[in-house]
Design brief:
The complex is a heterodimer of chains A (346) and B (521). Chain A has 346 residues and is mainly alpha-helical. Chain A has helices at 3-32, 37-49, 52-77, 85-102, 109-138, 142-165, 195-212, 214-224, 226-231, 236-252, 254-263, 274-284, 289-308, 316-345. Chain A has 14 helices and no strands. In chain B, the strands form 6 sheets. Chain B has a 6-stranded mixed beta sheet with strand order 6-9-10-3-11-12, with helices on both faces. Chain B has a 6-stranded mixed beta sheet with strand order 18-21-22-15-23-24, sandwiched between helices. A 4-stranded antiparallel beta sheet of chain B has the order 2-1-4-5, covered by helices on one side. At the A-B interface, helix 8 and helix 9 of A face helix 10, helix 11 and strand 20 of B.
Chain lengths: 346, 521
């Protein structure tokens, strides 16, 4: 086998083992609830992938996870840990909704949609740039700062919404103009919308940026060895800011899915948890865009399927299952890395 | 060469025999013998990378020897089972170069950490404090057990480390570069303390590369070079010159085919350069050096005497506090690293793994690292150009394996260095080459190739500034030489002086600051 093929095999093998371990653990839990694992897994699968509506809903649930997974992965590859997706997607969605609702009715879709998406990205990017700049120029750690900014973002959005923007007696903003809406894909009444393709486009851009572009080359060098990057004349500080800004921007675009494609307004609590789930998606997807898409589909399946199997087992069981997958991936990831290192040295 | 173990009548408390340790392909210790007597100071000297620290960590049980035997106070320690707990139990304590103290805790708390004396279930700090006070007075350590560690000076913190080891009951004290962080006054105080300890029968083993200290203090001296003991001397009667001679070795000059230099215009002009080091203290004082096109100027010196800072100031990684760096008449002071590369800099960094390559990058990516603008098409990397470059460079300098997709981290040091040399010497605008430790950790075959490449660069008209810890390398490659000591130029030699008999001893002496005054003539 070629070296590359061998690496890929080990990676996939590691993930497969992790999934099997997680399923086995889930089976034990299901048995404790007096249900048949085969039955529960069967229902989970048929309700998510067995009919058009299920597929649509599953893809809809996966869409934001592709964005947040890419967001976390981009920062990861530049050696940074962005735990701020939660806040970035919040300000992105909020800004997106505000601009979308402020546009005149007559704005053509060709202008309104890109503008609303760009604003979402800009807002998320701005929130990502802050911990990036703090890390680059003061050395204060982005993990702490992104976590803190999550709280600040959520409080600020809620305050601004209540004070100025929310529709009377509600916790949501006014509707965006109809030309800014992303069309529903019309799959059997599911919420799946145009942002699903946007997510794929993002994954494609991610790949071009990280694996083909000069900027990506620099970001990867900074991530793997900041000292060598500095010696090579790469502006390490600027690279850190750029990486965190881009990471925040991708998270901000999650707003397109909920605001432009589904609710058509910003609502308090929207997208909650998607940012943190993005960390798991990036981890499971090995920071690789194709891996991330598959990981997002898996977690999307679980989160959609969790609702469907609620009749047999508590839906918390699915959350436990997700957690077990993450743990198993983290463990196999370490062993896979060791195997790769060993394989490389021989 | 250890036939002259002095005063065999004295009690041997620590004995290492035939100790070897390999890290990968690098032999850090090669059949090393060491005999430490009770109530004596034993200095282990040698260049950085000579294997001193490894040897001490083996004695302390922190690193496991591959082979050899360790005897502590007559007791044979199985090398596979030796560890710091056992070492301390038998009385061997170690003070590391970087202190292992908890800054917000008091001296007494730090000392008892891990072996807290209890009264019932309660920590009995008073008892420990009393014992520390007694130890402090006995040995003149002047340590207040109640003081908070972070309020203490570096010298005081070191004495806390020493008292900690003594309190643990150790009477064989290993000190790793104890004076590296001390001011001259603190050094004197430390030596007083050590003399007091020795008088009480404690054995002190001290790693250092400062030879005046060795002469001042040591009863026995073991000289290491490239992992081997090359000489053992008696402290009495040893001079800085004789130790320096042993340290730099008497090996014959490497045979490098080299035509006489044909120097041109001044290219690299470093004027009155001063800079601070990592610790914030002055590391470079008023250094001036000029390199002409087509000549190699060597920079000798014991590591830590300003070489790193000089390199970093020229490359743009460190801002000088005063002075200038100019190349071909252009002042480089305000320029970024990347601009300097574009204006003619080529750079082989001294720390290959940290600075020169990205270990997780492929050969191809490492070959364009820092030159990736040259191999771009618009915003994208030009993969075809990169592949061509990799193919050409791999063939040029015979990089093995000859597979551009292999990660650099899996390659031997010599092949990694070939990547760096090939990349740097093929920069389009090359005018100067700052080349540091080009053959460190590199196998013999690659050394020859790298030397040839450096000379070829010189003959192609580059101004080469060559830093090396290998005096033989500097002597065989350099057309001129300067010696840095304490951040200053201690000696300058031209080609004629370099070729003279006794040049090596003169350089060795200047490196240790022994005879700066007598060499000024």
């Amino acid at each position: 086998m070629t070296k590359r093929g061998n690496e890929l095999f080990l990676q996939v093998y590691g993930v497969a083992v992790a999934l099997l371990v997680a399923m086995a653990a889930g089976s034990v839990l299901i048995l404790i609830f007096g249900q048949s694992p085969a039955n529960v897994y069967g229902v989970l699968l048929s309700k998510t992938w067995g009919n058009a509506h299920g597929i649509g809903q599953t893809l809809f649930k996966s869409t934001p996870l592709i964005f947040t997974g890419l967001s976390v992965a981009l920062a990861f590859r530049a050696g940074l840990f962005n735990i701020g997706c939660e806040g970035q997607l919040l300000v992105g969605s909020f800004a997106c909704a505000l601009v979308g609702s402020a546009l005149p009715m007559s704005t053509p879709a060709l202008l309104a949609v890109p503008l609303a998406i760009a604003v979402a990205g800009l807002a998320g990017g701005a929130l990502g740039a802050i911990p990036g700049a703090l890390r680059a120029y003061t050395g204060s750690h982005e993990v702490i700062n992104t976590i803190m900014l999550n709280f600040i973002a959520s409080a600020a959005v809620l305050w601004a919404g209540n004070r100025f923007f929310f529709v009377e007696e509600t916790t949501h903003t006014a509707e965006i103009v109809s030309t800014a809406e992303l069309p529903s894909l019309g799959i059997s009444g599911s919420a799946l919308n145009g942002s699903f393709f946007l997510a794929f486009a993002c994954a494609g851009l991610f790949w071009v940026l990280m694996d083909r572009s000069r900027r990506g080359f620099e970001l990867r060098a900074v991530g793997l060895s900041p000292l060598a990057a500095e010696n090579a004349g790469i502006d390490v500080r600027r690279s850190i800011v750029v990486a965190m800004t881009l990471s925040g921007a991708i998270a901000g675009i999650v707003g397109a899915n909920f605001v432009l494609g589904y609710k058509h307004y910003f609502e308090e609590g929207l997208g909650r948890g998607m940012g943190f789930m993005g960390i798991a998606v990036a981890l499971l997807g090995r920071n690789n865009p194709i891996g991330i898409i598959f990981a997002a589909l898996l977690f999307g399946t679980l989160s959609n399927g969790g609702l469907e199997v609620n009749a047999f087992v508590p839906k918390e069981l699915i959350e436990v299952l997700q957690a077990v997958i993450i743990l198993a991936v983290a463990i196999t990831s370490a062993t896979t890395q060791r195997a790769l290192a060993k394989g490389g040295a021989s | 060469m250890s036939e002259s173990v002095p005063s065999l009548a004295d009690e041997v408390v620590l004995e290492l025999a035939g100790v070897s340790r390999r890290f990968g392909t690098n032999v850090a210790n090669d059949k090393v013998d060491l005999v430490v007597r009770k109530g004596s100071v034993h200095a282990v000297v040698g260049e950085n990378g000579a294997g001193k620290s490894t040897l001490m960590k083996i004695a302390y049980g922190q690193i496991r020897a591959d082979e050899g035997s360790i005897r502590i106070k007559g007791r044979q320690m199985p090398i596979a089972k030796h560890n710091p707990m056992k070492a301390i139990e038998l009385g061997v304590g170690m003070v590391h170069q970087h202190f292992m103290l908890v800054p917000p805790l008091s001296v007494a708390e730090n000392v008892v950490l891990g072996r807290e004396p209890l009264k019932g279930l309660v920590l009995d700090l008073d008892k420990a404090a009393g014992e520390l006070q007694a130890l402090s007075e006995k040995y003149g350590l002047h340590v207040d057990p109640t003081a908070i560690v972070e309020t203490l000076s570096v010298g005081e913190q070191q004495r806390v480390e020493i008292i900690k080891v003594l309190w643990q009951g150790c009477d064989i004290l290993i000190l790793d570069e104890p004076t590296a962080v001390l001011t001259p006054l603190e050094v004197d105080q430390l030596f007083d303390v050590l003399r007091g300890l020795v008088a009480e029968g404690v054995a002190v083993v001290m790693i250092t590369h400062k030879l005046d200290e060795v002469v001042a203090l040591a009863d026995d001296i073991t000289v290491m070079r490239r992992g081997k003991v090359v000489d053992t001397l008696e402290g009495q009667g040893a001079s800085v010159e004789s130790i320096a001679q042993a340290m730099v070795g008497r090996s014959v000059l490497l045979q490098v085919a080299k035509a006489p230099a044909n120097p041109g215009e001044d290219v690299l002009v470093v004027k009155a350069l001063s800079a601070l080091g990592q610790s914030g203290l002055p590391a470079l004082r008023d250094v001036s050096v000029t390199v002409r096109a087509g000549e190699i100027v060597g920079v000798a010196g014991v590591e830590g005497n300003g070489q790193s800072e000089l390199q970093e100031c020229i490359v743009g990684l460190r801002k000088p506090t005063s002075g200038t760096v100019a190349v071909n008449g252009q002042d480089w002071s305000g320029m970024h690293v990347a601009e300097r590369y574009r204006s003619g800099l080529a750079h082989v960094p001294e720390d290959r793994h940290a600075r020169a390559i990205v270990l997780d990058f492929s050969i191809a990516d490492n070959l364009i690292l820092g030159r990736h603008r040259e191999f771009s098409k618009g915003p994208l990397i030009d993969r075809e150009a990169r592949a061509k470059e990799a193919e050409a460079r791999i063939a040029d300098v015979d990089i093995r394996p000859a597979d551009a997709s292999v990660h650099a981290g899996t390659m031997s040091g010599g092949n990694q260095q070939k990547i760096v040399i090939a990349r740097e010497l093929n920069r389009p605008a090359n005018a100067i080459l700052v080349c540091a430790q080009p053959t460190r950790g590199v196998d013999i075959g690659a050394i020859e190739l790298i030397h040839k490449q450096v000379i070829a660069a010189r003959d192609a008209g580059l101004a080469v500034l060559l830093f090396s810890a290998e005096l033989a390398e500097l002597q065989s490659l350099s057309d001129k030489l300067i010696v840095l000591y304490g951040g200053e130029v201690a000696l300058r030699m031209d080609a004629e002086e370099l070729a003279k008999e006794g040049a090596r001893a003169k350089i060795g002496a200047a490196m240790t600051g022994a005879s700066a005054s007598q060499e000024s003539a």
